[in-house]
Design brief:
By secondary structure, this protein is mainly alpha-helical. It is built from five helices and two strands; from the N terminus they run H-H-H-E-H-E-H. A two-stranded parallel ribbon has the order 1-2. It is globular and about 45 Å long. The protein starts with 7 loop residues before the first helix and ends with a helix.
C-alpha cells in the first residue's frame, strides 16, 4: 500500500472534490445517523459547558457554526478546504 494515497494533501484534495455532494448531504438531512443522534448530541455537549463563544476547527460546510450562532453564541469556523469555507459563508 502506498502511503502517499493517504497523505494529508490527498485527503484535502478528496474533500475539495466532494465538498458540494457533502454539503448537499448534510443540508438535506441525507445522513440518518446525524439526523437521529449525532448532530443533537454534539450541540448538547457543547451547550452543557455554557460557552459564550466557540471555534470550530474543521467546520466543513458550517452546520455547527450556524446552529451555535442561532443560539446567540459568537462562533468562528475554519477549514483547510476552501470550497467548504465558501459553502459555509452566508
Amino acid at each position: 500500500m502506498h502511503t502517499e494515497l493517504f497523505s494529508d494533501a490527498k485527503i484535502v484534495e478528496s474533500w475539495g472534490i466532494n465538498a458540494l455532494p457533502w454539503t448537499a448531504a448534510v443540508r438535506e438531512g441525507q445522513i440518518e445517523s446525524r439526523k437521529q443522534i449525532t448532530d443533537q448530541a454534539i450541540i448538547d455537549a457543547i451547550l452543557s459547558c455554557l460557552p459564550r463563544s466557540a471555534l470550530d476547527i474543521g467546520c466543513g460546510e458550517g452546520w455547527l457554526v450556524c446552529e451555535l450562532a442561532a443560539r446567540n453564541m459568537h462562533v468562528v469556523g475554519t477549514d483547510v478546504v476552501q470550497k467548504l469555507v465558501e459553502e459555509a459563508t452566508p
